[in-house]
Design brief:
The complex is a heterodimer. Chain A is an alpha/beta fold. Chain A folds into 2 domains: about 5-120, Glutathione S-transferase Yfyf (Class Pi), Chain A, domain 2; about 140-294, Rossmann fold (3-Layer(aba) Sandwich), CATH 3.40.50.11810. Chain A has helices spanning about 15, 20-30, 55-70, 80-95, 95-110, 125-130, 135-140, 160-165, 175-180, 205-220, 235-240, 245-250, 260-270, 285-294, and strands spanning about 5-10, 35-40, 75, 120, 150, 185, 225-230, 260. In chain A, the strands form 2 sheets. In chain A, strands 2-1-3-4 form a 4-stranded parallel β-sheet, with helices on both faces. A 4-stranded parallel β-sheet of chain A has the order 6-5-7-8, sandwiched between helices. Chain A is globular, with a radius of gyration of 19 Å. By secondary structure, chain B is mainly alpha-helical. Chain B has 2 domains: about 10-100, Fumarate Reductase Iron-sulfur Protein, Chain B, domain 2 (Orthogonal Bundle); about 105-170, no CATH class. Chain B has 10 helices and 2 strands; from the N terminus they run H-H-H-H-H-H-E-H-H-H-H-E. A two-stranded parallel ribbon of chain B has the order 1-2. In chain B, helix 3 (about 45-55) crosses helix 6. Classes of the chains: A alpha/beta, B mainly alpha. At the A-B interface, helix 1, helix 2, helix 3, helix 5 and helix 10 of A face helix 5, helix 6, helix 7, helix 8 and helix 9 of B.
């Protein structure tokens, strides 16, 4: 395997709320031999600004891309929102000359220029494309046989399909399913797997995201899964962090643990639950862990 | 102000915004609405209708409806449109114009913008969390070059826009009685 070296774009939500995702990802990547280069400086990817000013959102994204160009390294993200925004900006600015000129004019004020020399990857792509399922399987020392989980890929990793263009199926995403199966766990199916978590509008309207999340969590439980697996901090917040509030809103016990994929993979690679910060999850995966210890 | 006032040139303005170029190709099949996760809960948020209203130039009517802020940007409408219309990007363009021309935006985005301007990040990281990173053995979170971020806010004209915009808190999903 060629040396894998990436510039690690952490984004905002992970350092703000989800150290468990970062810590488990770093452990797993390090064991897989992926070299992570820290960014000495970065800013918000631009995602939260796009609804109010797309031009500024593209400029913020472009600044991050320029920082990567200076280091001559491709970007690796753990977040669907960061991936979607940086990847879209990268493609748009490479393809649309007028737009590139406009954004470059803004970048001129900070002495930067977008050239379009790097690419953007999500950890799911790195594991699937760069390492490959077969090679990844060789690192599984502790197969999670007997464990049943379900996947939630999230929107911005697969849609809009034309802009993402990574070979996953936006209607029935399979990349995360394949990655789950590598760990030895069973990946169960449920209705409307590709549906949105709704978290992007939670600051404006709680009713819809809560209804959507309740619906999904119920379906996943009914399918017999012991946990839901996510690859995006925003989706994870919706299903794990907000789960107690969802339970209170609908006066219903759900109690479904939600793990970052890197935690699931880490368990299969022989890391201890504490090392992967499973204790930091809001919904404690008690049954899942006792099942594993049997 | 008559909200039924028609601006036939409005679609030309929309068509110049990234992602909204193909609005003229919408032939009103309604696939976007049928597959919209929000339209499932609201009796009034209808992406198909938004696309038609843009084509007709019903600018005032569009820009006075806070329902525009309900789109989750799941992009299902974009993927399913048989005409290659990026309905969600058109909604984004309309939101951008509402903020710029009507000086009206959700307060949550005002907070996001102000945090990014202050720290480079969308959230203000508490000192305790930065310390905890250290205790966890994680590399320190870099300090963003906020001068650069501020210059980009200036260059795009957004610092002025978001400071002067009035803000609103919530958007309810409306259903018929």
């Amino acid at each position: 395997m060629a040396d894998l070296e990436y510039l690690f774009y952490l984004g905002c939500l992970i350092p703000y709320r989800l150290a468990s995702y970062e810590i488990s990802a770093r452990k797993v990547l390090s064991k897989l031999g992926v070299k992570i280069i820290e960014m000495p400086d970065f800013n918000c990817c631009g995602f939260p600004i796009a609804p109010v000013n797309y031009e500024l959102a593209l400029s913020l994204a472009a600044r991050n891309l320029c920082l990567a160009e200076q280091q001559k390294l491709d970007i690796l993200t753990l977040c669907n929102g960061c991936f979607g925004t940086l990847n879209e900006a990268n493609h748009l600015l490479k393809e649309n000359r007028n737009l590139r000129d406009k954004i470059n004019q803004h970048l001129q004020s900070i002495g930067m220029e977008f050239k379009g020399e790097v690419s953007v990857k999500h950890i799911v792509h790195l594991l699937t494309e760069d390492i490959g399922l077969e090679k990844l399987g060789e690192y599984v020392s502790n197969p999670l046989s007997g464990i049943r989980v379900a996947q939630h890929t999230g929107c911005h990793l697969v849609r809009p399909a034309k802009k993402v263009n990574r070979g996953d199926d936006p209607e029935e995403p399979h990349m995360l399913k394949d990655l789950i199966r590598v760990t030895g766990a069973e990946c169960v199916e449920y209705m409307d797997e590709a549906e949105c978590c709704g978290n992007t509008i939670i600051g404006l309207n709680e009713k819809v995201p809560f209804e959507l999340a309740k619906e999904k969590l119920e379906r996943v439980k009914a399918a017999g899964a012991q946990a839901l697996i996510t690859v995006c901090p925003s989706c994870h917040m919706m299903y794990d962090f907000n789960q107690p509030r969802i339970e209170r809103t609908f006066n219903e016990k759900i109690n479904l643990p939600v793990l970052h994929y890197t935690q699931l993979l880490g368990l299969a690679m022989g890391f201890q639950p504490e090392e992967l910060r499973l204790n930091q999850l809001r919904v404690k995966p008690v049954d899942l862990l006792s099942h594993l210890q049997k | 102000m008559n909200i039924l006032k028609v601006d036939p040139k409005f679609k030309n303005k929309i068509m110049k915004m990234p992602g909204a170029e193909r609005i003229r190709f919408c032939f009103q099949c309604g696939t976007c609405t049928a597959d919209c996760v929000i339209a499932r809960f609201s009796d009034f948020y209808r992406p198909r209708k938004i696309a038609r209203m843009v084509q007709l130039g019903l600018k005032e009517c569009l820009l006075s409806d806070d329902d525009l802020w309900l789109c989750t940007t799941c992009f299902t409408c974009v993927d399913h449109c048989p005409q290659g219309v990026e309905v969600s990007s058109i909604v984004r363009a309309l939101r951008n114009i509402m903020v710029e021309e009507k000086k009206r935006m959700p307060s949550v985005y005002k907070i996001f913008a102000s945090n990014i301007l202050k720290s480079g990040y969308v959230y203000l990281m508490p000192e305790s969390r930065l310390k905890r990173r250290e205790l966890e053995g994680l590399p320190p979170l870099p300090r963003s070059k906020v001068e650069d971020v501020a210059k980009l806010f200036e260059a795009t004209g957004f610092s002025e826009i978001f400071r002067s915009a009035e803000s609103f808190e919530k958007v309810e999903v409306k259903v018929r009685d």
